[in-house]
């Protein structure tokens, strides 16, 4: 499945989602590694099989297996970290924020791709998962690496578009049921 196939599956009530998918697919403001890794990481974070497969299939011709695996790792590790750190941030018991997480996350130190790129993917996945603490942490790393506001905004825009595709498909599935 490609983005074009995914767009064809998006129902008419979500025409804007189709248009946003088209603009994302034709966007060349990011490097191929940044762009297609974002698609993969966010597609996985969307938790929708059709969206995940479309993003992976779209990325395959553009990134190597190491990059693909790093994007998958960003989605997986943020799936864990976003829950844990959102809890420590939102809990009324502030002691949790000072306790060691005791979670293995060595992939962040050696992701298999440039660490700044991995941070960009992690920021986008954190936006999908709604973890403010992680969003702030990844944005801080990106700012210290001199990543532009436009690049950061583009990454989060990709996350929003990909998540909206998953929601549109789910909404249509509910209508059909």
TrEMBL record:
GO terms for biological process: cell redox homeostasis; response to oxidative stress. Residues 95-171 form the Carboxymuconolactone decarboxylase-like domain. Its EC number is 1.11.1.28. It catalyses: N(6)-[(R)-dihydrolipoyl]-L-lysyl-[lipoyl-carrier protein] + a hydroperoxide = N(6)-[(R)-lipoyl]-L-lysyl-[lipoyl-carrier protein] + an alcohol + H2O. Keywords: Antioxidant, Disulfide bond, Oxidoreductase, Peroxidase, Redox-active center. GO terms for molecular function: disulfide oxidoreductase activity; hydroperoxide reductase activity; peroxiredoxin activity. Disulfide bonds join 131-134. It comes from the Bacteria. The active site is at residues 131, 134. Belongs to the AhpD family. Antioxidant protein with alkyl hydroperoxidase activity. Required for the reduction of the AhpC active site cysteine residues and for the regeneration of the AhpC enzyme activity. This is Alkyl hydroperoxide reductase AhpD. It comes from Acuticoccus mangrovi. The lineage of its organism: Bacteria, Pseudomonadati, Pseudomonadota, Alphaproteobacteria, Hyphomicrobiales.
